[in-house]
Amino acid sequence: MNPKPKTHALMIMKSIKTIDGQVRLVVGVLVLTSVLLAWLVNIAWLGLAAFVGLSLILAAFSGVCPMESFISRCPFNPKGAQA
């Protein structure tokens, strides 16, 4: 018998367990929150989205991501967790 195929929700939860998945989740939440606040409160909140975008560009060129460093040190991640 073939094993039961993985559901989409299980695949998503597996990707969130990695450091890369957690970084993507935090970045996505920050950008969406920034856009929502810019739309509802003040256009200056787009500065947060610009900051996050700039950080991603710098991380791509330098190979160093401050958010990844922070998340890897959080207590819910095991010691020595890698991206």
Counted by DSSP, the helix tally is 4
* Overall body shape: globular
Given the helix and strand composition, which structural class is it? mainly alpha
Q: Which segments are poorly predicted (pLDDT under 50) over 5 or more consecutive residues?
A: none
Content of β-strand: under 5%
* Gyration radius, rounded: 16 Å
Largest sheet: none
**What is the mean predicted local confidence, pLDDT?**
84
Tell me the series of helices and strands, N- to C-terminal.
HHHH
Based on the model shown, name its key terms:
83 residues, globular, mainly alpha, single chain
Describe this structure in words.
The protein has four helices and no strands. With 83 residues, the chain is mainly alpha-helical.
Task: Give the secondary structure arrangement, pairings included.
Elements: H1 8-16, H2 19-40, H3 46-62, H4 66-72
In short:
With 83 residues, the protein is mainly α. It is built from four helices and no strands. α2 packs across α4 (66-72).
